[in-house]
Amino acid sequence: MVKLKRNLKRVLKIKFMFKDIYPKEGGDVETIIGPSVKVEGDFTSKGNVTVEGVVHGSLKTEKDLKVGVGAKISASVFATNAFIAGEVKGNVKASGRLELTDTSKIFGDIEAKTIIMAAGAFLNGKCTMCNDALPLPHLQDNDALKKNNNKK
Amino acid sequence: MYQYIYDAFLSEEKYLRPMTIIENRLADLGLQGRVNRLNLFKDPRELILEGIKRGVDTVVAVGNDETLFRVVNAVGDFNLTLGIIPVGPKNEITKILGVEEGLLACDCLSSRLIRRIDLGKINDVYFLAHLKTNSEVSLRYGKEYRVRSIENNSVEIYNLPTGEEMADPEDGYLEVRIKPSERNFLKKFTKGSLSSDGKSYFPAQKVFLEGGEGARILVDGFKLINPPAEVRILPRQLKVIVGKNRLF
Predict the structure, then answer these.
(1) Do A147 and B180 touch (CB under 8 A)?
(2) A11 within a domain of the structure (yes/no)
């Protein structure tokens, strides 16, 4: 019985060790704007955003942004990390990393701490890099923002 | 104290024996209470108000998903616990809550495993599980942004999970899904073919549904509402007795 208790304690200790190393990512809210959907206005989120459709206006997220191959964004874009494979007509700012694939087309300025540009990427605008992380935008409260806070 | 709301269809002969067995089991478990039967002339809300005056704290819907829908709309404004005894066909929502049919439902009621879950509201109508619309409906998130469909899409809003769609009824959010219509066989192989399933996902606490003349919204599979409609979530509004095999 004593041996069993000791083994159980050991197992629980290991489980909680790994819980810290590999934290649960269930709290991340993901919004997906599908290919047959158009969003018009000021879209803000505190979770990850994937765009495969059309966005007009502005798009801000405190986490990661992924723009798919068929996506068309006519908006200013701000994210922590951005992966762009589609078309963006507007300025793009990433406080961390900005990656442009070979199918990406940017008609506007880009600004990021780290920029990765694949051969074939199209950029028609200024490129600015900075040593320090860019300040995050002031996001208005909205649904995804509140959900992420509550899940934490 | 318990109050049992029986649906009108339980008066049919084929349900007499199952109901006798259920009532005997409830008596054995010490769960007897007031029994009221629904019909065209009786509003469940009035029955529940009478029950509250006599000390009822748990209302049990006995019937199918439609019975549950009617009772939820009566109970939604009050601080009562909701139980379910599913009898007959069309009990999909009760399966999500983990409540089995017949005698197992009585045991579930006896165990009193209560969870506070979110309750959806569309205009003045409460809904527990989901809303489904046809392709004429568009979404507006207050003054911030609007979501429109480029192709024929249907909008579905989930509070409870189903076998196909995930949702968490305890997170304080509705899960909005925009699903494309079935693509025809040839389009799948053209340049515009989609790598993903083409669905859109938005979490929401409050959203406005708008649409033209042909737009319709189906609430929990029973009630049809015409837009415009305001849909919102009431976080942790409803206390429900659930089963161990619930989907959340």
Answers:
(1) no
(2) no
